Amino acid sequence: GVMGLQLPLVVTAQVDLVLLLVSLLALWTRLSHLSYPNAVVFDEVYYGQFVSLYMKRVFFIDDSGPPLGHMILALGAYLGGFDGNFVWNRIGAEYPSSVSVWSLRLLPAVCGALCVPLVYLLTLELRFSHLSALGAAVLLLLVTTLQLP
Description:
Blueprint: H1 17-31, H2 44-55, H3 68-79, H4 101-125, H5 130-145
Helix pairs in contact: 1-4, 1-5, 2-3, 3-4, 4-5
């Protein structure tokens, strides 16, 4: 063969179907109804202020910790076309149609969804059984699922 390769090339893969299932369920539970409610919820009051400042390129100092988390949220807002013109003054304030709620919530939701397969794999890495890993993943999966309306 060419350079020692034998044809046909064969690739064999193992797929952990439980990992795939909990990953898909996590994405589904975290991403479905992402735009609901179309109003400010909980931490958006706090983090939204920082996002608006980043969008307006206003310098600020925040003592709550390193700015990477705020910058990641601002990236999602930027990619969604958010211009920073929204007053984040109270929980329940309706978003105007110019604000893409979905894009503001997408990155945190994806990160939250990725925690479920991470817990599954971490539990296996700690040498617990596959059933224990599934149990840990399902518990984390249900944490926010049980809070949905």
